[in-house]
Amino acid sequence: MKIIVTSIFVQDQEKALEFYTKTLGFVKKHDVPVGKFRWITLVSPDVQDGTELVLEPNDHPAAKEYQKKIFADGIPATMFGVADVREEYQRLIKNGVKFTMEPTEMGEVTIAVFDDTCGNLIQIAQK
């Protein structure tokens, strides 16, 4: 068994698509209309046949509440691996990304946390 798709709730699918592709550098794999929303998945440019990230609309009240509460408590919605957290931090800062935690060493891992502008905190990590 392996993880093939995971999702993240977003407030606005179009805004999220732009941020996750243009700012973060993910590649759009699927963009299919599904009623009033879309099935949008993204992949890493380095592993385009790997795990897909769904930009899931937070239209359900439980999704909105969950997203608001974990954001308010400073809990990242997901984590992305990077080769060099400090380098990625600098690249994203130059692209206007707002960080809530600068690169911080935690044992053998270095992490940083940023606001994805779509209702989530995202953690990047380097092992």
Could you explain how this protein is built, in words?
- It is a single chain.
- With 127 residues, the chain is α/β, with parallel strands linked by helices.
- It has a single domain, classed as 2,3-Dihydroxybiphenyl 1,2-Dioxygenase, domain 1, CATH 3.10.180.10.
- Helices cover 26% and strands 41% of the residues.
- The strands form two sheets. A four-stranded mixed sheet has the order 1-4-3-2.
- A hairpin with an 8-residue loop joins β3 and β4.
- The chain is globular and about 45 Å long.
- This is VOC family protein.
- It comes from Lederbergia citrisecunda.
Please summarize what this structure is:
The protein is built from three helices and eight strands.
How is the secondary structure organized here?
Layout: E1 5-10, H1 13-23, E2 27-34, E3 37-43, E4 52-57, H2 61-72, E5 78-81, H3 85-94, E6 99-106, E7 109-115, E8 121-126
Parallel strand pairs: 1-4, 5-8
Antiparallel strand pairs: 2-3, 3-4, 6-7, 7-8
